[in-house]
Amino acid sequence: MPIRSPSSSIFRPKGGVDQSAMKDNKKLVADINRRNLLRGTVSLGALTMLTGCTVSDSNAVQAVLRAVSSLNDGVQELLFRPNHLAPTYREDQVVKPPRFNAFYEVDDVKPVDSKAWKLELAGRVDNKAAWSAEQIYKLPEQELIVRHICVEGWDYIGQWSGVNLRQFLQRIGADTKAKYVAFRCADDYTECLDMATALHPQTILATKYAREPITDPFGFPLRLRTATKLGFKNAKWITAMEVTNTFPGTYWSERGFNWFAGI
Amino acid sequence: MTDALSVKSTERHRRKLHPAALRAMHWINAVAMIILIGSGWKIYNDEVLFGWLHFPDWMTIGIYAQHGLQWHFFAMWVLMINGLCYLAYGFYTGRFRRKLLPIWPSAVLADIRNAIRFKLAHDDILHYNAVQKTLYAGIIFVITIQVISGWVIWKPIQLSELTSWFFGFQGARLIHFFGMTGIVLFLVVHVTLALLVPKTIGAMVTGGPPESDEPVGTPPLSSPAE
User: Which one of A99, A134, A188, B149 is at 20 to 30 Å from B175 when CA atoms are compared?
Assistant: First the structure.
């Protein structure tokens, strides 16, 4: 069965968004945007002009929209029920293979060499010794058959197993009172969970899918899988994990997506 | 003396067809709803429900999906807070009861028949006909469901009990889409009819004529002398 690679999506911009032109013309852009903003505030009729790129990319409007997105982070933290379990499903409902999604096409995935691979630990952790794939794969496993929901709107049921993240954090002596657990990946993707989600019983560092080691496109040798976040929060090909009180920034939140992204 | 003055002032400030608070809420709702529809179409385009339906970029709000989401999750607060005020106002002041009730099915059918023959009277904008009452009560219901299905799409796990009422995450997406369709159809009819009877638009801007004294469910004014 071929891996499904769906239609055009922001998650797969061809070659990424080139910001150099924006930097070169910063003053000009700011000028034009100021004019757009004025136009936007002049009349209700201008509302119809809110389409396309007239207003959304104006600095002032972006500042307001991002402030509301931060407010929504806070609202979601309040709504989060630490012990509320996501529904689980039967094994015969599992989709194989899982659905691929990243900020590039599946053909551009660079497989990770598990022999050279290491999970590095940083930040508020007592035991910062790096972990080899062999060591990680020996840890006790927890299985999750849960729904994966993408911010785009699609979903599927997947069967993931690996070490429970809360147990792993305890094992390495992490400060579980810290605010964030951040991840860095082999493809330079960055992601970060709030501590409450990291400690949720359905958050694991996954090593297997449908009882077999995860294949290259889906994050081999180690990826995050949490039942309470949108798909893009589940970092693949993890190479480093940091427990921190300082928000480290994340790939998609820097590009305008909501950071908390809880479901 | 003071009694006469107070009577006079209530005369002068007799409630208009659309009091200022109501007009403000109407237009705030209109702006929020248009933002929600346009940004919702942007979000929809990222993963369509129907292969034959993509919304052209010029009618969507936001550059990429994340901007559509930003607008949507901004305007939803405006719509929800404004909508709660509107519901509280409608129930508390008795406006819903006065303006939207009762709705008799026979009256609705008769008005539809008249409307089709272009014989529906609309000289008196103070009283809604049965079709208007149905549409206005209906759209309040649809928007309420739309807000709830929106919450389910946003929080299908935290609100998993509610999610099952909407036949799961994809069920909620579908219901949210049909809710949007209903709202857009309402908008088309609503705006068309308002343009056909322009004084209704004027009334929603300036407040319109004062409400009639007909005691349709209005409590009698108590005199301070008693």
Answer: A99
Do strands A238-244 and A118-123 pair parallel, antiparallel, or not at all (unpaired)?
A: parallel
pTM, full prediction: 0.83
Chain B residues within an 8 Å CB radius of A50 = 35, 38, 61, 71
Please give the sequence-ordered ranges of beta strands (E in DSSP) within A47-202, or none if there are none.
118-123, 131-132, 142-149, 155-164, 180-185, 190-194
Yes or no: say if B17 and B203 are a contact pair by the CB < 8 Å rule: yes
Name the residue type at position B203: A
Angstrom distance (rounded) from CA A138 to CA A116? 17
Rounded Cα–Cα distance for residues A2 and A239 (Å) = 27
Amino acid identity of residue A219, one-letter, is G
Is the preceding peptide bond at B209 cis, omega within 30 degrees of 0? no
Encoded tokens for B102: 């009762």
DSSP type of residue B96: I
Alpha helices in B117-167 (DSSP H): 130-154, 160-165
What is the model's pLDDT at position B82?
Answer: 98
Residues 6+ apart with CB under 8 A from A141: A161, A162, A163, A207, A208
Of B34, B43, B64, the CB nearest to A47: B34
pLDDT at A232 over 60: yes
Alpha carbons B169 and B155: distance in angstroms, whole number: 9
- Beta carbons of B63 and A154 less than 8 Å apart: no
Q: What is the pLDDT of residue B117?
A: 79
Q: Are A249 and A129 in contact (CB under 8 A)?
A: no
Any idea what DSSP says for residue A151? Answer: T
